Amino acid sequence: MSGPFQTFDDPVAGGRDPGRLARLRAALASRGLSAFIIPRADAHQSEYTPPHDERLAWLTGFTGSAGLAVVLARAAALFTDGRYTLQAPQQIDMTQWQVVDSTRTRPFVWLAGHLGEGDVVGFDPWLMTARDVAQLRREVETVGGLLQAVPDNPLDALWEDQPPPPQAALWAHDPDLTGESVPDKLARIRTAIGEARCDALVVSDPHNLCWAFNLRGADVAHTPIVLGFALIPAEGRPVLFIAGGKIDAAMRAAISEHADLAEPETLLETLTARASGGAKLRIDSATGAEILRETVVRAGGEADVAADPITLMKARKNPVEIAGSREAHLRDGVAVSRFLAWFADTAPRGELTEIDAVCKLEEMRAQTNALVEIAFPTIAGAGPNGAIVHYRVSTQSNRAIGTGELFLIDSGAQYNDGTTDITRTLVTGEPTPEMRAHYTRVLKGHIAIARAVFPKGTTGAQIDALARLPLWEAGLDFDHGTGHGVGSFLSVHEGPQRISKAGNVALDPGMILSNEPGYYRAGSYGIRLENLLLVEPREIAGGEREMLGFETLTLAPFERRLIEPALLGRTERAWIDAYHARVWEKLALSVDDATRAWLEGATRPLAV
């Protein structure tokens, strides 16, 4: 692949056209539907959906990565979370739509409040999980409504220029980077299927499919996956349901050593045959579409809706994957530090825009000659744009980076040996005391997570508050999780591990997570500081419990001019100095002379 990997067109997909909503309402009325659910999803619940599946953006204009719309005859609401409550009103027609914070009002509860006896709610069973449909059914039937699956999505008939499904070629991931062969992975998966007393596992998450069979692809932007399904029986050969046009002869032969191949259109037929004898099939609760569960049950089988065991296996990186991640972060640290040195030299001249910064950072990464893709569209917000948590710069919104304001840049890279994600908040000119205080409080929360030591079995929810305490002390907070899981040359947002109020999965050695507390002052600026962490065993002299801690993988300096040492404790200052010393040690010999001179100043110890 080759860049550039991002464009700056206005991301609004034309959904401000009120005619689209009117035509959908007419189509629903013709089918006898009182309401219809439009999630931002494909058949795999992918974070980055292919253009073919961007129905929510086409209808509403909203392009965020998390959202769901509910359309009734006289009401239409877009639900999204705290990351997008500022972005959504800027993108959609507020005379047609209501924006609702999904963390405060559950969409299906809101819908039930707008229904009457006998109202029929339609949904596409390919685009909602069995778990979500069960919740929807409870809410709808409680008020006397009816739920109706609509496999032929009415939006597809209205969307005249809908792009075709992706057909990118897949490839084998380098066996020197996987750390485990396909047969060994399949043996572990079959053991897990047997322990769950299931007859087979339906793999609906393409990330899990790619991990299990050591494959990668380019069906969606920024994440190297191939879209498809797999059926892995407890005994016998697996079947991969991947469009044949994506597989050349050599790959077909390689895959056939471990599995049979079939077209995706035959999936439901195969599930019917497999379940007809009363077989018990595991359907992933996170990504398994309702139509999969429905097909198994209708055929006389048992649908065991629960976690795909591959998800946890994939999250626990093996030694080869960990070594690859360290190499990827070393390479990325060089590129990011070159960018930071360039920014420090160029920004004060007052000639830079957000797009200039995005392009330069991608250029620096491309010059490593190892960049396969960016991990996600770079978030580069100057001044008030930085307060939009998942801001995406366009030619229409592009802002000059002014003197005396903050600049937040959140970016990542996909290398064959690892996935990176880093956020730094920079300043041009002299920051205000308020900026320094807020930045330092965010940094204190970041350090608290990085230094955390905790017993095995601890969940992300149990340590999330550590990142928020310094902000809470000042009456502040942030409306997103503190950290998400990260894949190994897979998704930059990988479950099941996360550091958040909802992070209920125990953190295990080998998991990689982000550490990214923030603070956002609407209309003024945003601050976020992000490194990636590796969960590792931690020995404590005299300790009685098996303990864990974090290794910080990311290598790049923090913005010294925004640090207020007076707000830091002794151990916090020591952590920053030790981290900067490590950044200097790891990067100094790999950067050019100009960057090295800047890096030496950027990593010197804090003044007491």
UniProtKB/TrEMBL annotation:
UniProt keyword annotation of Hydrolase present: yes
Gene3D superfamilies according to UniProt: Creatinase/methionine aminopeptidase superfamily, Creatinase/prolidase N-terminal domain
Transmembrane helix keyword on record: no
Domain Creatinase N-terminal: from-to ranges: 20-141
Source domain of life: Bacteria
Keywords: Aminopeptidase, Hydrolase, Metal-binding, Protease
Residue span, Peptidase M24 domain: 326-536
InterPro entries to which the protein is assigned, alphabetical: Creatin/AminoP/Spt16_N, Creatinase/aminopeptidase-like, Creatinase_N, Pept_M24, Pept_M24B, Peptidase_M24_C, X-Pro_aminopeptidase_P
Single Gene Ontology MF annotation: aminopeptidase activity
Residues in Peptidase M24 C-terminal domain copies: 546-606
Family: Belongs to the peptidase M24B family.
Annotated protein name in UniProt: Xaa-Pro aminopeptidase
